[in-house]
Every structure is written in structure tokens, then in C-alpha cells.
Amino acid sequence: MSRVAYVNGRYLPHADAGVHIEDRGFQFSDGVYEVVAIADGRPVDLTGHIVRLARSLRELRIAMPMPERALRLVMREVVRRNAVSNGILYIQVNRGVHRRDHPFPPAHVAPSLIMTARPTPGVSARVMEEGTAVVTVPDRRWARRDIKSVSLLPNVLAKQAAREAGAWEAWQVDGDGFVTEGSSTNAWIVTPDGTLVTRPTGDDILAGITRAALIDLARREGIPVEERAFTVEEAKRAREAFNSSTTLPTVPVVRIDDTPVANGAPGSVTVRLHDLYEAHTVGAGAEDWLAA
């Protein structure tokens, strides 16, 4: 079956969907987005994603495109029309269409709302068995990384640098040598004493919804958690390392630049968190579309 996209009130064939050439998301990257995991046809941690979407919009002074209940109904319909059982739902809200000018358009200009959905394979068994490599790159993004903005060019360049180096992900590093996050993931290590460490939320990283779920799951399991910055050198001496995101909740890291992490194999804490998150997606994490 052909894919279907939602664009400003219309369900359209994916190949025919588009926005106006003066849409501010196209011309200025003036918009935000969210990606929601779908498991067995149900959204995972949807409420958290909607809360974060609303926050990002408030920070940029963009209006919510419709009431939350209506938004949830459209989300559900996009997933249904695309027959996605396990995959992702992509939502983007731009400031709207107006003649090209840097200041905000008049208040009557409505935001643009775009949604798509597609199946995704998830983390492969091979990746969980063998792990992945990351490279480190300077963090050259803007100062408000807590806003899930569509301005992703530095992330694109970082991810491309990783691929050209034969790595799966790039860890971005601030001017003091501390890891901020990956190009499309949050970054984690496990210290030699078994403590799970990830950078605290703030203006310098995105508050990952999967990140929050993993912290909660780890604490329930009795795994000690520290939200603090860690350096590249500390990561290279760690017992384990991994990345997390909505689409790939736990991806083991077994090499950082040219340095193996511990014995060069995925660690037990990473694997345990992977299993816990898998259970989460069919338990408390999987929401009904219209749940408040």
C-alpha cells in the first residue's frame, strides 16, 4: 500500500505531499518536530512527547496547531492509514506561510502541521551482540539544544562524519572536553563500579523521552544513576557505553574513536536496560491514543 502524509488538514499520498515554498520551516528552519515510537500499533510515551512538543513551541512562541485531543486523533489516523504496527510517527510544526522576512509573521498566520508514519526495524540482534562504534566531534550547534528544532545541519554533518569514519554515531563534545550528546541520540556510560551516567538536562542537550524512561527503569531495577557530565577520556575508561533515542532505545557502544570500551563487547547493564525497555513498550509505556 502507498504511504499517506498529513499536511495542514489533508491526508495526501506521500509522494504528492508538500508545503508552500514560503513556509518558514522550509526557508528559516523555523519549526520543531517530534518522533514517537509505535509498538503493536500503540504509541510509546506519547504524553511525554506531546508535553515536549508543547514546550518547544512555547519556547519559540509558535502556537499549538490544534487542541491536544484533536492532535492525538490525527496522530492515530496517520498511523492507521499507513498500517504501521511497529515503527515511528513523525510530527513537525512550522511557524507558517508568509512572505519571506525574518521577523515573525502576523498573528493570524496559522502554523503548519505535517505528519508521516512508517515502519522501522528497531535494534538488530547483531548490533546487540556486537555493538557499534562512535567518533567524537566538536559540538557546533546553537545554544538552545533543549528545543527540538528542525535546525539540524550540525547534526547532519556530525552523523556524516561518523559514517565516513566507519562509525554508527558521533558524540558531540563541548569546549571543555565533556560529551554533550550524539548527533541523534543521548549518550551514556557505565562506570567501573556499575553506576549509570548521562549528562543532566539543560540548554545544552535535548531532554530525551527515552532517556527519562531509561533512568526511571534503571532506578526501579536498583541500578545507581548519576546525571552529570562525563569527559571523552572517562568514557574511554568506562565499563560500558551506549546510545539511546526514540527509534533505537539502547545501542551498545564498544569503541570510541580508536579505543575499545572495556573488553570491546556490549555490557550487561546495557543489555539489561534493553530488555527492560522492551517490556516498557508493551507495558506502562504503551499508551492509548486518547489517554490524557
Describe what you observe in this structure.
This protein is α+β, with helices and mostly antiparallel strands and 292 residues long. It folds into 2 domains: 4-119, Aminotransferase class 4, branched-chain amino acid transferase, N-terminal domain (D-amino Acid Aminotransferase, Chain A, domain 1), CATH 3.30.470.10; 125-282, D-amino Acid Aminotransferase, Chain A, domain 2. The chain is 29% helix and 26% strand. It has helices at residues 24-28, 46-60, 68-81, 125-130, 153-164, 209-221, 232-236, 268-282; strands at residues 4-7, 10-13, 31-39, 42-43, 87-94, 112-119, 132-138, 169-173, 179-182, 186-190, 196-198, 225-227, 240-244, 251-256, 259-260. The strands form 2 sheets. Strands 7, 8, 9, 10, 11, 12, 13, 14 and 15 form a 9-stranded mixed beta sheet that branches. A 6-stranded antiparallel beta sheet has the order 2-1-6-5-3-4. Helix 6 (209-221) links the parallel strand 11 (196-198) and strand 12. Helix 6 packs across helix 8 (268-282). 39% of the residues are buried. The mean pLDDT is 97.
